[in-house]
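Homework-ish question, so no full write-ups if that breaks the rules, but can someone show me the predicted structure for this set?
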Amino acid sequence: MKIHVDRTLCDNHGQCTITAPSVFRIDDQGILQYEENVDDSLRADIEDSMDVCPVQAIFIVTED
Amino acid sequence: MSSVAEAPYFNISDPKFAMHSEEVRNAREQSWYARTNYGIAVLRYNQVSQLLKDQRLSQGSGQWPAHNGVHSGLFYDWWTTCLLVLEGEDHHRIRRLVNPAFSPRHIEPLIPRFEALAEELVEAYASSGRCEFVADFAEPYATRVLCILLGIPESEWPTIARLASTIGLALGITITEELPTIEEALGELYEYAEALIRDRQQNPKDDFITRLVEANKDGDALSDAELRNALVLMIFGGMDTTRNQLGLGMQSFLHNPAQWALLGEKPELGRAATEEVMRTNPTTTWVTREAAVTFEYEGLTIEKGTTVHLFTQTSGTDPMAFPDPEMDIEGEHKPHYGFGGGIHHCLGHFVARADMSVAYPILARRMKDIRLGGVDEWLPDSGNTGPVRLPLTFTPAP
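A: Not a homework solution, just the prediction itself:
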């Protein structure tokens, strides 16, 4: 599963680091860093992260 | 500015201290921060945006009861274990469990009920061409939205409003003398929440509290007491804030009649109106943080334990971030921090955004040419502000 964070929306609140800490983290500069390729077993956590993001900046990339 | 002693100074406990003032605007132009009688105040957008999410700062409200001489008892126990003041994994565990119930996909189906409620409340007074906005609209609307969300009969809203407002006294400087009343209300709200939890455990529904009860099923998840505490926090945190923010919005539109007329014509601007009201006239005038460690920031040493007030209205109208800071519901603007930010970002913001985005356009359609219709009365600007009484006159419209 591939995920994408829209950097024009992301405001680095870090709510996603609570829901999916193995995927999202805030670095020393206060900027969100994340894994783009995520195991499908984490889908529920990613969906929770998408839901909880205050600015709704997280997306699962659908490839077709 | 070369030293701390030269930074502007505010007495933020003074009931006359005003956010929308020349004093605060001048200070923001001069310096990114001001000294206050309780720590520092951060005034500019970029610094508020950074410090709000800075992990060297913790949520600063945990010590509030202790600072006021309250060290034990029902209120103390609730406050010091509620999500608002928890940090680290203690905070994350509860937040992870309650977050899904606030998901936008669960809030959206409630929007038609918010619309019907707004129409019902306006209809009751519209033909007279006058209202007392707080009592006639803001308070019943904010409280009944909570009832809808929690699945409580809407007819019980006066009880909920009374209990939430009484517990709200705990945030004021009279906390010590009001403590017996506050604890009585808290005890009553506990019983209320416990009854709701028991009911949904026995009779699950497709609703908000059932979702929280379900989150509670797994072994190490939310205990019943944690769930009860969270429900009480939601009632406490969701009622006064929404009521006050609705009233502040009416104040903003009284000063911007062209924007009000525009909103009446274009209800699709409801969301933008909500964001603009919160950017330029937020009820939470500052967000409190406390330095968890001593650190350097923009040439200033912030000592461990320093209280840091992040000013929301001041940052949201900072000309360095908003070249034209006036309210403009058709404009594009950077995000505001009226819901706080970082890991303590307001849990209920999707609900608040949805219910206000519904209410303002309906009010603008039904109440043309709003004017102040009597003596208004306001809470001080410090902490959470808003109207106590806001009489309005208007031209009724269908």
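Now go work out the reasoning yourself. Hint: The first helix of chain A runs from residue 15 to 19.
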